[in-house]
Amino acid sequence: MSDRPIKKVISASDIEIDRTELDMSISQFAVKNGGYYSKAFSKIHEKTSFLSLTFNVWACLLGPFWSASRALWGMFWSFLILEIVAWVQIGQGLWGNPGAEYLARAATQQNRADELMQRAKDATETVDIERFTKLSENIAKAAEISLERAAAAQAEASTILFGGLIILFIVKTIQGLYADYAYEKQYTRWRINPDQIESGMRRSNITLGIVLVLAIAPLVIFKFTSTQEIPQFLSEFPENAVSTLFLGSDNGTLFAAIAGFMERQIDAAAIAGGGVFDGIVRSVRTVLDALTLALNGSPWPVVMIVIVVTAWRSAGPRVAIFTAAALCYIAFLGYWEIAMETVALAGAAVILCVVIGIPLGVWFGKSMRAFRVAEPILDLMQTLPAFVYLIPIIAFFGTGNPPGILATIIFGMPPVIRLTALGMRGVPESIKEASVAFGASRWQLLKDVELPLALPSIMAGVNQTILMCLSMVVIISLIGGGGLGREILEALQYAAKGPGLLGGFAILFVAMVIDRIVQGAFKGSNKSL
Amino acid sequence: MADTVVKLKDVWKIFGAQTDEAMQAIHTHKLSKADVLSKFNCVVGVQNASFEVGRGEIFCIMGLSGSGKSTLVRHVNRLIEPTSGTIEILGKNISNLTNKELRQLRSQQIGMVFQHMALMPHRSVRDNVAYPLEIRKVAKSKRWAVSDHVLKMVDLAGFEDRLPKELSGGMQQRVGIARALASDPDILLMDEPFSALDPLIRIQLQDQFKSLVADLNKTTLFITHDLDEAIRIGHRIAIMKDGVVVQIGTPEEIVMHPADNYVREFVQGISKLKLVKAHSIMEPIESFNGSKPKAPRAEHDVDLDHLIDLAVKSSEAIIITDDGKDVGVVSKSTLLQGIQGGKDE
Question: Which of B70, B103, B123 to mutate: most A Cβ within 10 Å?
Answer without folding.
Answer: B103
